[in-house]
């Protein structure tokens, strides 16, 4: 198995746990406060991770284009997290998490449009299954 696939699987496992433990953490508090506390923890953990893994010389390789795209990524992440937590506070974890994973469809389309990535029949079929799953689980 290629290393990136292993990383993606580990990411999937963490993301699955994230929704459930976040819902528990929101008990008795607002989604906004919960997100704020969670984000502080994320910042601390990521800074520790960076201190342990990023070579100081690598920081010098950052260019304006890196800052620009990473800042845009941070803005879109913040928007995603804000509305995810608002939905998680009042919705069922399974439904909220599935609708959120509909972002895969958006990512595929944007990667095709902006990054010129190829969309194969396999990707189209998988995307259609994701969309079908969204309708099946989200429909009450």
List keywords for this structure.
single chain; 140 residues; mainly alpha; 7 helices
Describe, in plain words, how this protein is organized in 3D.
This protein has 140 residues and is mainly alpha-helical. The protein has one domain (3-101). The protein is 83% helix and 0% strand. The protein contains seven helices and no strands. The chain is globular and about 55 Å long. It starts with a helix and ends with a helix. The mean pLDDT is 94.
Order of helices and strands: HHHHHHH
Number of strands: 0
- Tell me the structural class: mainly alpha
Overall outline: globular
- From the alpha carbons, calculate the radius of gyration and give it in angstroms: 18 Å
Amino-to-carboxy terminus distance: 39 Å
Q: Indicate the proportion of strand residues.
A: under 5%
Output mean pLDDT. 94
Counting H and I runs of at least 4 residues, what is the number of helices?
7
Helix content: over 70%
In the predicted model, the low-confidence regions spanning at least 5 consecutive residues are none
Q: Tell me about the biggest sheet?
A: none
**Number of discrete domains:** 1
Short description:
The protein is an all-alpha fold and 140 residues long. The protein is built from seven helices and no strands.
What's the SSE blueprint?
Elements: H1 3-25, H2 31-53, H3 56-59, H4 64-90, H5 93-101, H6 103-114, H7 121-138
């Amino acid at each position: 198995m290629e290393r990136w696939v292993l990383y993606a699987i580990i990411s999937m496992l963490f993301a699955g746990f994230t929704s459930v433990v976040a819902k528990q953490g929101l008990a008795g508090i607002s989604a906004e406060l919960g997100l704020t506390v969670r984000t502080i923890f994320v910042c601390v953990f990521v800074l520790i991770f960076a201190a342990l893994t990023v070579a100081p010389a690598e920081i010098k390789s950052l260019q304006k284009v890196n800052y620009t795209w990473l800042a845009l990524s941070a803005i879109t992440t913040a928007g995603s997290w804000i509305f995810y937590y608002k939905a998680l506070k009042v919705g069922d974890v399974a439904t909220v998490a599935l609708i959120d994973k509909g972002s895969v469809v958006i990512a595929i389309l944007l990667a095709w449009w902006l990054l010129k990535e190829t969309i194969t029949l396999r990707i189209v079929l998988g995307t259609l299954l994701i969309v079908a799953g969204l309708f099946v689980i989200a429909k009450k």
